[in-house]
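Async update (no meeting this week)

Hi team, since we skipped the sync, here's where things stand on the single-chain job. The sequence we agreed to prioritize is pasted below, unchanged from the tracker. I ran it this morning and attached the output directly underneath so nobody has to dig for it. Comments welcome in thread, and please keep replies under the output.
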Amino acid sequence: IIVGGASRVPKVQQILMEVTEKSELGKAVNSDEAAALGASFAAGAISKGFRTKKFGMRDITLYPIELSYNRSVEDGSSKHVRRVLSSRYSVIPQKKIMTFNKFLEDFQ
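Output:
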């Protein structure tokens, strides 16, 4: 089942058909129905009352998540610092540890 705006692009459909080795993609479900269908499959998979086929789901970030701040430099000026917490299309949830032990005075 494929949903979303990019699913209407013919080139995307062609690539997906080649990758999945299918002659046709399931496009008859709207996005609300697809979300409900995916939630019901996920609930059935973790429930002990139903037997379902094993499948995997991944949640991803569509946009990068960045930390941006200004840091004072020794000469009195400030420097803009940007660190990427999560890059585009990263699988979530994820654990990221960043250490700021070098410039403690910036965060007091």
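Quick observations from my side:
The CA atoms of residues 1 and 26 lie 5 Å apart.
The helical segments are 10-20, 31-46.
Reply here if anything looks off.
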